[in-house]
């Protein structure tokens, strides 16, 4: 086995793993945050020292706020309702809706 094949054998799975983690992080943000919180707890949380404390602080879940935070509460699902600065949700207007038409190709 040559050096090229050894590097390729290690590099390709690492690239696939990185892409898989990226896709899961984007489409499953709650699961990502649960996993990060679990890893932070296993490192010792705030009681850890040195590099483990820095890693636990980096992995600790951050407070999510605003639109597209991945933490939809199931309320009225408007951007104004999930931000702290607005008192009332933004009204939904006809201009904000977009019509999608499906056309069968023959």
Automatic annotation (TrEMBL):
The chain crosses the membrane at residues 6-27. The keyword Membrane applies. Pfam families: DUF6587 (PF20228). InterPro entries: DUF6587 (IPR046494). Keywords: Membrane, Transmembrane, Transmembrane helix. This is Transmembrane protein. The lineage of its organism: Bacteria, Pseudomonadati, Pseudomonadota, Betaproteobacteria, Burkholderiales.
